[in-house]
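worker-3 :: picked Thiamine transporter SLC35F3 isoform X2
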Amino acid sequence: MKKHSARVAPLSACNSPVLTLTKVEGEERPREPPGPAEAPASVGSEAGGRTSRRRWTCSRGQLQKTFWGVAVVSCVCASWAGAAQLAKLTFRTFDAPFTLTWFATNWNFLFFPLYYAGHVCKSTEKQSVKQRYRECCRFFGDNGLTLKVFFTKAAPFGVLWTLTNYLYLHAIKKINTTDVSVLFCCNKAFVFLLSWIVLRDRFMGVRIVAAILAIAGIVMMTYADGFHSHSVIGIALVVGSASMSALYKVLFKLLLGSAKFGEAALFLSILGVFNILFITCIPVILYFTKVEYWSSFEDIPWGNLCGFSILLLTFNIVLNFGIAVTYPTLMSLGIVLSVPVNAVVDHYTSQIVFNGVRVIAIIIIGLGFLLLLLPEEWDVWLIKLLTRLKVRKKEETAEGGADLGSGPQHRSRRARPSFAR
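worker-3 :: tokens ->
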């Protein structure tokens, strides 16, 4: 199994709703094909002079990455859907989405300590915390993490992170988690459009189709509830959250490029520090102005708040660092698979109505999301696959004709000596 010198681009909420951070769009790492590689066909001939057929095989490393992929997908799906459902449950007794966002973002501080613990356990060349910190700080430039760098390269992303997650959680208050989770999947379409315009990324027709499907799904989802103000506000909040997430991701790639695992962990921990130092005043103001008010601290459901934060932290860790053990495409599937999970839970716990328009909107947005997962060379892979299938079919037809033709000739050759007598 080849080891990747993977670089990840820490995004706050890119491929995932709420406090998701970064994923791997824009990372500098070798791209893995989405399927098993084809083993080179043997050129030797069989006993009858026929060429041996090509066979598709998987290496042990690929099987291992696929196995880890299934585990990562399950973890991403469970943690993401669980966080959304727990947030919905929390708002029944604690109506404070911004305070919940602030509380959960504070847990980002744990990223670098957890990364360093993994470094100590796995690395053969162990470094002290100070050495590792200084090495990761090179990501911000030759001078490291200075006060100027903090306010110019970290603070803007901290604001975008907070906005993304606050809008997402506020939307969960307004509409059901199924609609929120499926609408946030439009995030990938927004990332593509912004990357195409700002970063001059390669134009892909299939991704334009996916973006159109995403926009059509948003309109149909709005129509599913009859354009009621409550529903429209909730959908607008989710779309705003997805847009902030896409902006975060594109700006990160534009200003900072890509980051190694340690650098990504340090950056996310810095966002947690920024949240503690500069965002703490906002929940305090909201409390005293009674915008987000609770009678006493004993009434706060600390279990729900901590559970929600742990699920989001798990989700972000797996989504950011799962690339070390599996394919990025498989990790992205966990996001879209959380939609049916939320749908099942909502069916039994809320009054959601799965009418025809809502179901079609969910399918359209899901299809657009899957189209965006196609690699840039998907057309080349498809042409190669069709060519191989065509060649194989011709070989089989030729072999079948040779078998039919050789039978009578073989019998005639054996009969000739009897006539000679």
